[in-house]
Each structure stands twice: as structure tokens, then as C-alpha cells.
Amino acid sequence: MQEQIDHPKSSSPRKRGSREHNFSQISFSKLRAMDPRFRGDDGFLNSNLFTFLAGALAVLALPPINVLPLMFLSIGWLIHQLANATTWKQAATRGWWFGLGYFVVGLYWVSFALFVDWPKFAWLLPFSIFGLPILMTIYVAAMCALLFWLARKFSNPKLATILFFPFFWLAGEWLRGTVFTGFPWNLIGESFTEWNWLFQGAAIVGVYGLGFLITLACAMWLASYQINSPFWKFACRAKPIGILIVLAAFGFWRVHQIAPTRPLQVRIVQPNTSEEGRWDFARRVNIMNTLLRMTDEPATIAPQLVVWPEAATPFIIAQEPNVRSAIARVLPPGAMLATGSIRRDAATRQIFNSMEFVNARGEITGHYDKSHLVPFGEYMPLAKYWTKYLHIKAVAEFFGDMGSGSGPETQTVGGVRISPLICYEAIFAGEVIAQNPRPQLLVNVTEDGWYGNTIGPHQHLAQARARAVEEGIPLVRAANTGISALVDRFGRVEKSLPYGTQGVLDGEIQIPVTDNTPPSAGGHFWIYLGILMAVHLVFTLWLLNRAKVKT
After folding, report:
1. Residue pLDDT, tens place only, 469-499
2. Going by DSSP bridges, is the β-strand pair 336-344/411-413 parallel, antiparallel, or unpaired?
3. How much is the pLDDT for 229?
4. Ramachandran quadrant class, 349 (left: phi over 0; alpha: psi -120 to 50; beta: rest)
5. Is 218 among the residues known to form the active site?
6. Catalytic residue among 194, 218, 236, 370, which?
7. Shortest CA distance to 437 belongs to which of 423, 457, 417, 461?
8. Beta carbons of 327 and 338 less than 8 angstroms apart
9. Residue 3 is among the residues annotated as catalytic for this protein
10. Which of 173, 310, 356, 431 is catalytic?
11. Whole-prediction pTM value?
């Protein structure tokens, strides 16, 4: 029933054709439309600017800042704004501004890659600052518009918007992590990274599931304001607290589970070499000598596995017997080297971004080719059109487009089953291991020097840590400029080298002896997340059809 505003009636009758309004006949909603002071999109708290700032604020909940409550406040604000939208265009606009704030601030570091060859790529700077964030924001805006459309199918669209929001947010995150090879960077579930007990929930429902739980907690709290029933109002407010308690209790229990393991002595080499002039011959020799010298440094316990970063060797080592002999001289007896390297296929002459495995005799025992390539960095989507009509080449071009590997593999290196991950392959949840045989160790090599000492390398490390939690498998991460780290199977950083330093990181990491790791979905988290979603869907439909909970 619309609210009426009473005004004194005029003492004289209104003349025919008079411009005078009878305010007693004007609804409150019409008054809001007539007077700018009442318009929701005119006040600062309801402005697009504030929604943009709310999205930007959510980035502070992610690594390396980690102010977790800001994620709940920001997502809660977005849900509130969508619940009060009056048209699908307004809902899409509010989602657009929130997403733009989130991605412009969260992805600003991508532009730093263009400074490596500034004269050549400076003109791309505006596109990198706003282009990628805009592409990511499209998913958020579309999700908000579709949510508005669905909510209008119910008698209480405001409550429906709130309760259905977690499904649509999850769908938006999954789509941007999948479509056009995907870019699942800064999933909101990663805001739990430094809250280790809460973070363990990723072992069951994945980081996507943690994001669903964050949005679910916000939605249930806001839903309580749309419900008259004291019991269900209390239940909706208790649910967010219950979610956090259950997550923390599971996390506490999980990290105290004991599984049979054995120690592996690891040395990570972080050479901290710049990309400029990397393939000049004199520079290549200098880089190689640095890697050899650092590998040969004395160790308290001789390493069994030495890891060099992505594309660490500035030679195609399969074609350089002298380089392989030099590697053999610095490796301890029985040790293995896992190194990022450019590889050329002998038959097809195709170039690959690879990880190659070299034993103490200087023999290449195997290799892994990167399968998830970086668009515009390692290959050009629709390359013939870009080069033919726009004359644009890849930013990180090396002898043309890179070849792509077949996908996750389990490689046996020095008696250890490892899953190799090159660069941002580690950000794809559920796509980092081959199940048969199941690996004992994740090895991630990367080069984050393109992005400077920004939040980018910290975010990248956080996502690699999430894979360790999801799979229940420890992680060794070697980055050329940092951040290199040893991470246990619970996602905790045991040792690390900071960004921008040259050094060697020696440590012992416990690898599982059997597949009986602490409880984990083992890459099948979508099954458990699907069950969680189904439960909330049944609850949502039931709640929306109960007359007693309508406002």
C-alpha cells in the first residue's frame, strides 16, 4: 500500500486548467521522482561515486592489506543498492560502478608490464589501466541486471534480490574465470588468505565457495531487515555468525589433523634479474653464471630439489650441452633441478614456455609445457587480424606465438611426484593437478618482475597458496624477483624471500607419503559447493513463498 502525504486543502476551489497540484493525491514514490532531494541516486550515499568507492574499498580486504571486514561491508553495500534499484538499467549501472572500482584499484599493477619496453608500448597504457577492468566489470554489471530481472518474478522482489545475490555473484566470478581462457584474479574468497582457520574452508568448497559464503553471510544479514517474523529475523542474523564459526571450527580441526609425510630438502634460487636486454649474449652469460653461483652456495643440508624461476635459463638448454654440464657441476649428487626455460620442439620448431627437469649428470629427464597462456603476452587472440590490420605484436613476444601444452601433468622428479605450474597457471582453481597419479608437491615458477613492487605479486602468491589449501598439497614457489616461498599444505608460508631481493631460500617441506592428506575436496570442490548452493536455493524459495515473512 502506497504511503500518502497529507497537506492542508486549499480554501478556494481549484480552477479548471490551474497548474496547482493536489498534493493529497500524490504518492510518496511520485514525490521522490518529482523532487531531486528525494531521488536515491542524487544523495552521496546512493551516488555512483560512492558505489565506485565501495568497490575500491573491497580491494583492501585482499592481500597484502587483509582488512577482512571491509569485504563484508562492501558486498553488503552492493546488495543493498541492488535491492533498492527500480529498473534493470539502474541495477546494471550500480553493479558497473562497483565492479569498476574493484578492478581499477585491484588491477592497476597490470600496466607496469608496459614500462619494460616503454617506447614501444606506451600507447597501450590507457587500455591496460581501464581496458582489462572494464572487461571484468561487464560480468558484474550483467550479473546485476539479470538478478534484477529474476527478482521481479517474485512477490517480494527486494527480498528475492538479496537472497539470490550469492548465486549471481558466484556465476559472475566463475564466468570471468572461464570465458576467453579466463582471468579469475582477486576472487573475493581470497580475502580469507591471512585468516588461516577461515581459509581452510577452501579445502571443501574452494575459493569460489568461500566467496559464495561471504555473499551468503551478507545476504542473510540484510534479509533480516525484510522479514517481520521475530524467529526468522533472528535466524537470518544468526546465520552469518554461524557461517564464520563453522568455518573457523573446521579450520582449527583441519590444521591439527596428522597425515603421514616425509621431509624434502629444497633450495629456491631467486636471482632478481631484470627483463631488459635479457636475450643479449653478454647478458645471457652473466645471468647464467649468477644462477650457477647461487645454486653452488654452501648449504647446511644438501638440497634434493633445486628450483629456478620461470624462463630462468636464457638459453634453450636442450641445445646447449655446455650449459647442461655447468648445471651438473653445481647440483649435489642425486639432486634434481626444476627450472623455467624456453623450449623449442625438435620436430615442429615450435617455442614453448616450459619447465625442464635436469639431473646431477646434466641430463634432461622431462619437461612440462605451459598450457594456460597469457593473452597478448604469450599469444595473440585472433593474431592474424591484429598483425594484419593494426600491426600489433604481443607484449612479451618471443619468436612469435608460444605453443600450448596439453594441461596439468604429474611429473616424477627425483622420486617426488610434482605438479608443475608456470606463472599464472596457479590462479585457476581445480585446474592445477592431474589426479592419476596424484602429485605430492606443487611447483610454481614465475616472473613477477614485470609488475614492480606493487600489490600484484602479493595477490599472485595468495592465489598459489589457495591451491595448496584446495588440494591439500604443499607448494614450492620460485619467482625471479620475488616473492619466493615454501608453503605447507594448509596454505601457510613457512619461509619466503621478499620482492626485489637476490637470495637463496633453503628449507624443508613435508610432502605426503600417501593420498590421505588432511580433508580436502582434492579438486572436486564443485560437488560440495553444488550441495551448499542447492540447500540455500531450497531455503530461498521456501522463504519467499511464506506470507509471514513479507514486509
Report:
1. 999 999 999 999 989 999 999 999 999 999 9
2. unpaired
3. 85
4. left
5. no
6. 370
7. 417
8. no
9. no
10. 310
11. 0.86
